[in-house]
Write a structure and sequence with these properties.
Chain lengths: 93, 154
């Protein structure tokens, strides 16, 4: 899967949020804010371009002391949320 | 809506307006009843493009003390007078044209539905609302007890 083009991580009011950079309107009532872990994964996903849940889980285990199982679960939950928010293009399968 | 200087949300809003973006900013308070329901609705702002007009709802730094989203009630050269629609007594605020950071074009409801603030009907309503200023207090009290509870706006 891939992050949709035009969405970027930006710091607003000291919080990391996803802003549609290509979009003209910024809605402060509906910003998608990311905690540190989510922001890390967003950056990783950006770096990878085409990424999988497994790759994100790898990134988590590299930085945090979590089990592979937990990391997979967290990465899956997060990408699931991004899908719901329409931030992700699903893989072509 | 009132905010002190140093409110980062307002500062971010102003920075983004300067970049030429539209910004949807949630508003607080009852000072724009019955046109905007603070606490529930937001305003969609743009950087001022054309000369400001009486009747425009704007984000402005007023009286050198705070930011408000209120309606322009008078313009004299660079001097702008504002007042909230939901303010019953003559709470007039003052600012300079350059202190107007944005013009509200739409009100955005929680479900995302937008309504243009300056349709002919709404402009007529806002002029009428200005004329009934002496009795606004009672009309607002009635509005807040009835229509507001049903989420009805103008």
């Amino acid at each position: 899967m891939k992050l949709k083009k035009g969405f970027v991580l930006r710091e607003v009011c000291g919080e990391k949020v996803i802003v549609g950079e290509g979009l003209e309107t910024v809605n402060f009532g509906k910003l998608i804010s990311l905690n540190d872990t989510a922001a890390l994964l967003w950056e990783k996903a950006e770096e990878l371009g085409d990424f999988t849940v497994e790759q994100l889980a790898d990134a988590l285990t590299e930085v945090y002391e979590v089990s592979r199982e937990q990391a997979l679960k967290d990465a899956e939950t997060l990408t699931g949320r991004w899908k719901e928010e329409g931030l992700i293009t699903p893989p072509l399968t | 809506m009132r905010n002190e200087k140093g409110d980062t949300l307002i500062e971010e809003t102003i920075a983004m307006l300067k970049e030429g973006r539209r910004v949807v900013l949630p508003v607080k308070g009852s000072s724009m009843h019955p046109f905007i329901i603070g606490g529930k609705e937001s305003v969609e702002l743009v950087s001022p493009q054309e000369p400001l007009k009486v009747g425009d709802v704007v984000l402005a730094w007023v009286n050198g003390t705070r930011y408000v989203v209120h309606r322009i009630i008078g313009i004299d050269g660079d001097k702008v007078k504002l007042m909230g629609d939901g303010n019953s007594i003559d709470k007039v605020e003052h600012c300079q044209t350059e202190e107007v950071a944005g013009v509200a074009e739409y009100v955005v409801a929680p479900n995302g539905k937008r309504r243009y603030l300056y349709t002919k009907t709404r402009q007529r309503c806002s002029r009428l609302w200005w004329k009934v200023k002496p009795v606004r207090r009672w009309l607002l009290a009635l509005y807040r007890r009835t229509f507001l509870k049903l989420n009805i706006h103008i």
